[in-house]
Amino acid sequence: MRILIKISGEALSNQTGNNYDFSYLQKIGQQIQALQKNHQIAIVCGGGNICRGAEFAKNGISPTVGHEVGMLATTMNALMLADIVEKL
């Protein structure tokens, strides 16, 4: 079976909402590892814990740049999660 998992960037953040909760990342990694035994897994990460492009636009940054920064945040989250899963 193939499974698609969407993980909100905000779900990866700590209680202050602007950094990583490494214990939670570890738990997510363990759950993914368990699913990989019997399934093909695809994961989509959000970037809302690092930035929101709309917030930049409110401060004069062009929407295009705000969205590009949001895509980089998504990439950062994906790299972080991938590294944890690979180490497990």
Describe, in plain words, how this protein is organized in 3D.
With 88 residues, the chain is of the alpha+beta class. Strand 1, helix 1 (22-36) and strand 2 (40-45) form a beta-alpha-beta unit. The chain has helices spanning 22-36, 53-57, 63-87; strands spanning 2-7, 40-45. The chain is built from 3 helices and 2 strands; from the N terminus they run βαβαα. The mean pLDDT is 88. The protein is elongated and about 50 Å long. It is 51% helix and 14% strand. Helix 1 (22-36) packs across helix 3. The chain has a two-stranded parallel ribbon. The two termini are 21 Å apart. The relative contact order is 0.22.
Tell me the structural class: alpha+beta
Q: What is the residue-mean pLDDT, rounded to a whole number? A: 88
Percent of residues in helices comes to 40-55%
Instruction: Output the radius of gyration.
Output: 14 Å
Major beta sheet, specifics?
2 strands, parallel
Strand proportion: 5-15%
How many strand segments?
A: 2
H/E element order = EHEHH
Question: What global shape is seen?
Answer: elongated
Termini Cα gap? 21 Å
Low-pLDDT windows of residues: none
